[in-house]
Design brief:
Helix content: 25-40%
Oligomer: single chain
Structural class: alpha/beta
Number of domains: 2
Strand content: 15-25%
CATH architecture of the largest domain: 3-Layer(aba) Sandwich
Bound molecules: nicotinamide-adenine-dinucleotide
Distance between the termini: 65 Å
CATH superfamily of the largest domain: Aldehyde Dehydrogenase, Chain A, domain 1
Shape: globular
Number of helices: 17
Strand order of the largest sheet: 13-14-15-12-11-16-17
CATH topology of the largest domain: Aldehyde Dehydrogenase, Chain A, domain 1
Length: about 500
């Protein structure tokens, strides 16, 4: 034990430190009272509206349109009309618009980051340093492919599919929008996108960026609404559905469009194993575990929500983890010191509470960050469960909140077996100093993304997607372009 650790042992990390509040100003965001639907480059009025709120204090932010079946059909018709000229525009011209969008997002990043935290509840330091830079980077990256499609797929003649219907969740609203829209436009498709009902505001602000970039009318259309609007989009005349969300809804969509000829990609849930071997760099690993599960309140499909620790270092890992958790600052998403923000919605909070209750009833041992939660809004303290059996619900079901379940293993074989023992297969993490062990594990883990000695790292050039009930199709990189293209060789049976 080092001197510092000895001292920390005598006096546990002081949790009573008071930080001066460091709130980000919301002045930069100008909200309208009521938003319409962005169809064919115009704002159209919806017949019905709903209120979108801030989860940090439940205050109403704006009225948002609930797009009907007819609205969705108009959006698809606008996208169909725009497709003719957009798909025949030179790739280098399409790229110009996309570079413009990327630059405007970067220029207006503070405005977008504040709005993202306000509407979604994530800490401002995450929207500012992760969501916004990555969203702009996606447009920059795919703009670069727009005029190189023929070189990207040698000996195959790529052509766009037509109109893409895209449905996204609430955990990374603007980033998921970028993951969807950027490759679709680069490939020459036009788009109708539906944001999640609890976080529509950055997608609506994005329409302003489209206008500023002078993107031709109808190339991107945004229709807001709940699952009914999503279902109408699935049912409409689009050529492809790209869906990110829960496995349950993903399966329903797949059943619904089977046999229609519509293309489909599904990015669904996860229950990632973060696997810690006894030769890991332990302090770095603790940071990776914390980042893996408490980043974005655990509202992350690839969150490292199952910690598998080699038995020989179980105690120091759990001790250090609890000590680190005690330093996490939970509170106002707009405070620059906040590590863990608000839970996105009441419904999501209730889901987390229900699963945590199940964990307690099944016999797991609970530890929570000692913190005072604000009275208004939706909050859940960072939580870790020890003494977890593989059969417990908290070890099998996606909680999608700041809740970690710790399990142990003795051998690498056992680690692989336990890691693969869920219906999901989205991501995994491996912590060890041995490169050969990382490769050995990566070959055996059934997960689309495997991080080694790090976690939750994203790059537009790197494909992302799942196995099993985590879905199919990839987003990011060259792989992410393919689902938005048809190939002439396919038509001729080649
Ligand atoms: P959800 O499936 O309830 O909603 C996702 C989107 O689908 C929303 O826009 C919603 O309005 C829409 N929707 C709901 N019912 C629909 C229907 N019948 N037809 C068409 N659209 C419909 O999921 P959620 O609770 O909002 O999001 C959380 C889930 O998303 C988690 O399971 C998480 O793992 C997953 N997720 C996956 C990824 C990934 O890349 N794999 C990324 C983020 C989130």
């Amino acid at each position: 034990m080092t001197e510092v650790e000895k001292r920390q042992d005598r006096s546990p990390v002081p949790t009573g430190w008071t930080y001066a509040p460091a709130p980000e100003s919301t002045d930069v965001v100008k909200l309208r009272e009521r938003y319409g639907l962005y169809i064919g480059g115009e704002w159209l009025t919806a017949k019905e509206h709903f209120t979108t709120i801030s989860p940090r204090d439940e205050s109403p932010l704006a009225e948002v349109g609930q797009a009907s079946v007819a609205d969705v059909e108009s959006a698809v018709a606008a996208a169909r009309e725009a497709f003719e000229s957009w798909s025949t525009l030179a790739g280098s011209e399409r790229a110009k618009y996309m570079f413009r969008i990327a630059r405007i997002l970067a220029e207006r990043s503070r405005e977008f980051a504040v709005l993202e935290s306000l509407n979604g509840g994530k800490p401002i330091k995450e929207s500012r340093d992760v969501d916004l830079p990555l969203a702009a980077a996606h447009f920059f990256y795919y703009a670069g492919w727009a005029d190189k499609l023929e070189y990207a797929f040698p000996n195959r003649r790529p052509r766009p599919l037509g109109v893409a219907g895209q449905i996204i969740p609430w955990n990374f609203p603007l980033l998921m929008l970028s993951w969807k829209i950027a490759p679709a436009l680069a490939a020459g498709n036009t788009v109708v996108l539906k944001p999640a009902e609890t976080t529509p505001l950055t997608a609506l602000l994005f329409c302003d960026v489209l206008r500023q970039a002078e993107l031709p009318a109808g190339v991107v259309n945004i229709v807001t609404g709940d699952g009914r609007t999503g279902a109408a989009l699935v049912d409409s005349g689009v050529d492809k559905i790209a869906f990110t969300g829960s496995t349950e809804v993903g399966k329903a969509i797949q059943r619904h469009i089977a046999g229609t000829g519509k293309r489909l990609t599904l990015e669904l849930g996860g229950k990632a194993a973060n696997i810690v071997f006894d030769d890991c760099a332990i302090d770095q690993t603790i940071e990776g575990i914390v980042n893996g599960i408490y980043f974005n309140q655990g509202h992350v499909c690839c969150a490292g929500s199952r910690l598998l620790v080699q038995e020989s270092i179980y105690e120091p890992v759990v001790d250090k983890l609890k000590r680190r958790m005690a330093t996490l600052r939970v509170g106002d998403p707009l405070d620059k010191n906040t590590d863990v923000g608000a839970i996105n919605s009441k419904v999501q909070l209730e889901r987390i509470e229900e699963l945590v209750e199940a964990g307690k009833n099944e016999g797991a041992e609970l530890f929570q960050t000692p913190c005072q939660l604000p009275e208004k809004g939706y909050w859940f303290a960072p939580t870790v469960f020890t003494n977890v059996a593989q059969s417990y619900r908290i070890a099998q079901e996606e909680i999608f909140g700041p809740v970690l379940s710790v399990l142990t293993f003795r051998t690498p074989e056992e680690a692989v077996e336990k890691a693969n023992n869920t219906p999901y297969g989205l991501s995994a993490g491996v912590w060890t100093e041995k490169g050969s062990r990382i490769l050995w594990m990566a070959e055996r883990l059934r997960a689309g993304v495997i991080w080694a000695n790090t976690f939750n790292r994203f790059d537009p050039a790197s494909p992302f997607g799942g196995y099993k009930e985590s879905g199919f199709g990839r987003e990011g990189g060259l792989h992410g372009l393919e689902p938005y293209l048809a190939f002439d060789t396919e038509t001729f049976g080649g």
